[in-house]
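pinging the channel bc i need a second pair of eyes. not urgent but kinda urgent?? the chain im working w is below, pasted from the shared doc
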Amino acid sequence: KKKNLASVTRGAITAYINECRKNDIADRSIARKIAALRSYFGFLARRHDIQDPTEDIVTPKMRQLIPRHLTEQEIDLVLETAKSDSSPQGRRNYLMLYLMYSAGLRISELLGVTTDKINFETGFITILGKRDKERLVPLPDAVKKEIDEFIKDKEIFPSGKGGPKFLFHPMGESGSESLSRQSGWTIFKKVLRRAGIKKPVSPHSFRHSLATHLLSRGANIRAIQIFMGHERITSTQIYTHMDKSGLRKIYDKKHPRAG
């Protein structure tokens, strides 16, 4: 076995990578395979003094995946469609989508919102994000009004404003538990289907959409980073690739030598 491993050449590794490409294996997957081979042969080289055939192998560059998003008009259509259902369940579903877009929330953050985290005086909501990091997110007055009316609705919150803990809970239950992630996905897909949106989007696309719309309207990228709860600015910079028309307008308006 040692002899076979020692006889593996750079050419053999390259041939393997080329075969992966022929089979349409994604660059990201190929990069992981190369990393595994590099780790393994690096270990063998240190322990058994063999030549590492992966030394000069170049890892394919990762193509930056541009998140799918909806236009402002499509967001309006989705929200109008959701709002057309005036039942308690329909009102809940509408507010879920409205808040998810307005605050740029991940679906896990949305479903984790509790009534005690909403400050109606300051107009901020405390969001528990990734790795349990909290961030304050401002609420537009219209959204704040919708939440206030929603919580005061006795059909949805039988015990009133100080009752159920989770803002979005199964209808007819106490509110001690939130809707499941799967239920959130189902609601999202049903409303989009009713709205006639055929793009392959997910609840996370609402978050991507807001970031894109903020950028296209001239928002500072650092402010967007803080608002979205991105740890790294590189996570926010991906949106600069998404709305070139918006960037063009900002350039023409702000650049001292434009026009």
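so The beta strands are 118-119, 124-128, 134-138. and The chain has two domains: 2-48, 72-249. — does that match what u expected or am i reading it wrong
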